[in-house]
Design goal:
With 187 residues, the chain is an alpha+beta fold. It has one domain. 35% of the residues lie in helices and 15% in strands. It is built from five helices and four strands. It has a four-stranded antiparallel sheet with strand order 1-4-2-3, with helices on both faces. Helix 1 crosses helix 5.
Length: 187
């Protein structure tokens, strides 16, 4: 009965070493960032302009690691308070799912994530699109009154990057700053 298990540890270790070697050599295709005021999310024209700018930053096929940061670190306390007063239902009475509040004492990021469909995922975080059941920050629903400048940093990778490699890189970024919102990827 133990035959299928024998050798698993050695094979798993070999695969992890191979993955480690690939991750060490993996480089993003570039780096970019854009700043926006949270109040812009309540202005349809400003939101449309932001969406156009975001669309020009990343090739549609790229996989992207991204990080939302408050340009003024003192803004995190205001964001924490505003998140506590967020609406829990949409206009149809459906329960909204938000990114988890991590509440570290001194976050250095608002959120860290990765996506193969960057524009759509960022639209969910901004609160521009997304069904009630999708976990995201939904900033437009609760943060527009917070006087804060948010920076969105992004690092695109080749579309053929192994999802496990991308996840390992995202996890390292997450671990380096424990963001205010979201959860660490993986299980």
């Amino acid at each position: 009965m133990t035959e299928p298990i024998l050798g698993l540890a050695a094979r798993a270790s070999a695969r992890l070493r191979l993955l480690s070697a690939k991750v060490v050599d993996r480089r993003p295709l570039g780096a970019d960032s854009i700043d926006f005021e949270l109040a812009w999310l309540a202005d349809p024209d400003a939101l449309k302009a932001l969406d156009v700018d975001l669309g020009n930053m990343v090739d549609r096929d790229s996989r992207v690691i991204y990080q939302f940061v408050a340009r003024d670190p003192t803004s995190y306390a205001d964001l924490r308070d505003a998140f506590g007063a967020r609406p829990m239902e949409n206009s149809k009475g459906k329960t909204l799912r938000y990114s988890r509040m991590m509440a570290p004492a001194d976050p250095c990021a608002l959120y860290v994530g990765s996506s193969a469909s960057f524009r759509s995922r960022i639209g969910q975080h901004l609160g521009r699109i997304g069904g009630a059941g999708t976990y995201s920050m939904r900033l437009a629903l609760w943060a527009t009154a917070v006087p804060a400048t948010i920076g969105l940093r992004l690092w695109p990778y080749d579309p053929d990057i192994n999802p496990i490699e991308l996840e390992a890189l995202e996890q390292e970024l997450w671990d380096s700053c424990t963001p205010l919102l979201g959860k660490r990827s993986g299980r």
